[in-house]
Amino acid sequence: MRVAIAGSNGLACSIADAITTNTYHQIIILSRAPKPQLSARGWQVVVVNYDESHRQELAFKLAGVSVVISVISGAAQLALIDAAAQASVRRFAPAEFDGPSALRPHPDALDRGKRAALERLQYYQTRGMQYTSFVCGILYERFAPGGMYASGIGHRSGIGAEGDYLINITQKKAQIPFGTDGQPAIVSLTSAEDVGKFVAAAISLPQWPPELRMRGDRMNVSRLVQAAEIVRGTGFEKAQYNSQSMQSALQLAQSAQNMQQQLRVISMIATASGRFDFATPNLNSLVDVTPTRFQAWLQEVWKDR
């Protein structure tokens, strides 16, 4: 089977690596520019243009592709979906890698075109193209040295640096959002490497449901902070937030016109609402992947720091 991966960031590379290592599928990497470092790994890099005027060319480059896995967003992803449908691609996985879509508000400040992509895919599903959203919760890499940016992930999100999401391990500071039940919020998490393994294993499933949920670990935010404290061997400075204090923090960021801080607080509010948690990881039971637990992963990436 020929699989196209749209994007060349760290998550795209984790997926590509897992497919080439664990399956016999052929991959191509769709990129806006040449990527010699990826070509050097033996991967075929196809330079593409997502502008509407290049749709025919994009569809031509998807000829013979059975599955598209997208790690791009916005208008480019919509153009890719249209071209995939034109090229008779059988399956499409949009750039989700988040919490379940049903838990998102509308409008959603963290959307980045996800809702529009799912609506477009629902349209094409009636015309024979299957799709699934790969749901993984929070990526472990948010808590790596340097955050997601250091792993080449999330550069367009605006909040991928270390400390942008709940915990700054270097500075030993943490924010703990509480839900309406008065308890610390719960999150589901997965490492980028394991996301790649789950996606690679899912390609050959006989059917793709609307969501395939994977999980490496699940814990409340207080336990998340404890895991970081264990790794650093010291207690952290902790700030607790309820609904009222989070709204106050958001209003303060809005009055200061600080968009990055607004996104940080909105992410914390989303966490408190349960957006990044789910009870049943249906993909875990369908494929042979044993994910790394969060504490072990965190210990490994911080061991020489």
How would you describe what is shown here?
This protein has 305 residues and is α/β, with parallel strands linked by helices. 35% of the residues lie in helices and 17% in strands. The protein has ten helices and 14 strands. The chain has helices at residues 10-22, 36-39, 55-61, 74-86, 114-125, 192-202, 221-232, 243-255, 259-272, 294-301; strands spanning 2-6, 26-31, 44-47, 67-70, 91-93, 130-131, 133-135, 138-139, 167-168, 173-177, 186-190, 211-213, 217-220, 237-241. A six-stranded parallel beta sheet has the order 3-2-1-4-5-6, with helices on both faces. The protein has a three-stranded mixed beta sheet with strand order 8-11-13. It has a three-stranded mixed beta sheet with strand order 9-10-14. Helix 8 (243-255) runs antiparallel to helix 9 (259-272). The radius of gyration is 19 Å and the shape is globular.
Order of helices and strands: EHEHEHEHEHEEEEEEHEEHEHHH
What value does the average pLDDT take?
97
Strand elements, count: 14
Major β-sheet strand ordering: 3-2-1-4-5-6
Helix content: 25-40%
Uncertain segments are none
Outline type: globular
Structural class: alpha/beta
Strand content: 15-25%
Radius of gyration from the alpha-carbon trace, in angstroms: 19 Å
Number of helices: 10
Quick one: biggest sheet? 6 strands, parallel
Measure the end-to-end span.
42 Å
